[in-house]
Amino acid sequence: MINDQRQFIGRRGELLAELFLQDLRPRFVARADTLDVGVDFFVGFSNTRGGVNLVAVEVKATEQLSKARIGLARKHYTLLANSNVPGLILVVDVKQSKYYFAFADNANMLDSRETIWVQLLEADEDGRSALLKQLSE
Amino acid sequence: MCLVNCAAQLHAEAGAARLRPGSRAACVIASAAASRRLQFATRFCKRHRRQPPRRFGFGTRALAAQLSVRSVGQTNENALDTLTCELRRYFVLRSQGAIALSLRHRLTVMTLPELRDVTGFRGERIVELCLTEYSSLAAPLFRPGFLGDKWPAIDFYVELTTVPEKRLYFFGQAKATSCVLSDDADALHISADRDDVERLMEIPAPTYILGVHEPSKRVFVRAVHSLTPKKAITRIPVAYELNIANLVRLHDEVRAYWLSAASKPTTSVFE
């Protein structure tokens, strides 16, 4: 039953995330179908210079998010924060169909604990615009 | 707080069926015989036939990770090809470096040059999300399973999650459209032809057509039962939108049907 619930949350989160990313009008959404890629999506956005900004997206799904924060394993966070493409952490509240996001940043790595807590922004109307602007610069 | 990492292993066959590569090739092979049940009306209300899968990148196993590239905006094919090459090169370099990637993975590329092609993929996802909507419920009422592009007549097998010790179900066929649906429209216009309806009527279980208005992500439902006229269904009243109230009504209707009928044989020659 717990596995069912986890699968359900995961599946719904994944669908919501993909639609969310598509709604940002990217140039493409590439799903990373194997575990060893380390992230869930690569998304490309046209930038103002005529090129493409690539971003690696890690999706986390949850039924309840407390204080708009999320904890990530240090190893995973390190991968996102130190890759040659920006790492976007996209958190989906699957019950309320709400989205939160943060970019993986080395500044958070100062925390020495195994779990790194990331403060998220809600991707409401304003948050979405800010995110899109950041992705297309 | 329950957190689930949405990694690839969770989408199983539904994702695999939709993400199979080949849409780009399908544009070339116009004579492909496989029928496309999800006949998604475009903004021009044109119909598109479902195309067979075709593997890209076969024989290029050394090309590292498996990706499905899906264009969702205005596409410059050359630019996308260039990007794809760059991605391949990147992963090849990466595979030669510190992070070794398995050789069994391949780079699969799927581009959909027109937004209308995306309508179908999005439509399937929108149906699944709609059926599992539970923002004002304690738990989702349904568990949908996508049957894949090739399964005749139906797209979704949908189980009810609320009946103890029973796995009651119905079947759904999705019809997505991006045609205009104005605020004062009384119906969503879809294109379920007579064959679609007849095939649904052959299934001895509750069957529904799920009309998807892709731009607004709204889903509408219409039953196909034994007294439904054998003719095309071209509209679904907006009153049948799958909001929470109608999800509950749909759930109760399917539940009542199965609880009033024997759902399991009582004998068998193989017992």
Give your account of this protein's structure.
Chain A is built from three helices and eight strands, in the order αββββαββββα. Chain A has 137 residues and is of the alpha+beta class. By secondary structure, chain B is an alpha+beta fold. Chain B folds into two domains: 10-34 and 52-114, no CATH class; 116-259, 3-Layer(aba) Sandwich (Trna Endonuclease, Chain: A, domain 1). Chain B has helices at residues 12-19, 23-28, 77-96, 115-131, 194-201, 244-259; strands at 3-5, 67-71, 142-146, 156-160, 169-177, 187-192, 207-213, 218-224, 233-237. The radius of gyration of chain B is 21 Å and the shape is globular. Chains A and B meet through α1, β1, β2 and β3 of A and β1, α1, β2, α3 and α4 of B. β1 (28-32) of chain A pairs antiparallel with β2 (67-71) of chain B, so a sheet runs across the interface.
Roughly how many Å is the radius of gyration of chain B? 21 Å
Largest sheet of chain B: 5 strands, mixed
Radius of gyration of chain A: 15 Å
Helix content of chain A: 25-40%
Which features would summarize this protein structure in a list?
heterodimer; A: 137 residues; alpha+beta; Trna Endonuclease, Chain: A, domain 1; six-stranded mixed β-sheet; 3 helices; 8 strands; globular; B: 271 residues; 2 domains; five-stranded mixed β-sheet; two-stranded antiparallel sheet; 28% helix
